[in-house]
Amino acid sequence: MKDHPFKEKPTFKDMMNDVVEYGSCCECGSCVLVCPHNVIEYIDGKPKQTAKASAAFDYCGISEGIGCDVCAQVCPRLAPREFHLPSAVFGGQEGRLYRGGFGTYQEIYAARAKDPRILEVCQDGGVVTALLVHLMQKGEIDGAIVSAPDPERPCAPKPVCATTVEEIVEAAGSWYTYVPNDLALQQAVDKDCQRVAFVGVPCQITPVRKAELRDTGFIHTETKRDKMIDRQTRSLKDPVERIALRIGLLCSEVFDFEGLMVRKIEGELGIPLTDVKKFNVKGEVLVYRKDGELVKINLRDAQEHARPECHHCGDFSAELADISCGGVGSMDWTITITRTDLGRRIMQGMIDAGLLEVRPIEDFENSLKVLLRLARRQHQRVPVGPGGLPAARPSYYRPSPEASGNE
Prior knowledge:
8-stranded mixed β-sheet; 3-stranded antiparallel β-sheet
């Protein structure tokens, strides 16, 4: 590959200082997932050095000894960033590629599941749930990385590797609070799932792609034994090599659970979280109670509880996924973007099987406008950090001559 994005090797110290200490850590947990030596743990939503209590927070004896830094290679906030990776992800695709304001893609349309059971519990059009159920029933996956309701914490889902259709359906919907789905890849390893579909927001798709694309040559040194090289290589590659499909969820930001759910909804509005059936955002926050009542919250009021870490993300529409999905600007429909040959083939298979109702994106003019506006805004909002991350939209986002005109 002529212009490979991995030109430098960030270190454990870079990650702990320029990301965690700086405040841009998105809490995906990918660094903890791939750490070969149990140096860091996922504590209070952040990686924490726990291997040596007396050592500094940014000290890793393996990194500074024989060498490692596997964790830093997958961090979505370190170079290469999400906007450096498209050429590596989409090179070699056979389908016609377009480059618009929401990244590289092949097709875009609105879709809705036909299964009444899925429509009863889904967030918008139920495309993601229908897709996972379809693949599971066909035997094309044996697991799905999803966010599922936590029976011990209402409105606070947890990362799960679902292995049955029933578990997939139970995980339908979204609560707009952060869930470290990447950590559930360890469950896939523990359950010996060989082919899983990974569902995640953009900052979770990015580390998956980075782990897949990262050449392992940096692990090999003259002083390192073969056993250690194998350990570090497996830790980086084994979880992501089980991923058969990457489904990205459109996301501009998520809310702090304690702030919005506990203090605002339960505290100020007096709505017990056990009474909340569904949660959605359509220009305002919609809280559906189990008794049928709909409570609306002004979006600006809710955004007081948005996570500041999300303001360091430059990707709204999961531009590195095989398929991107979201209910942007529409009710009861999923705006669906196929980006790779794999994603296009799988979605076409569902359409051919009669599992989806599909309408052209031209019927959803407002959705397309909102999608482009939110994608552009997110491209441009990444601040300059300690590592000199770009503040302006990088050249990648400028429409190419072969762009479709949707820019």
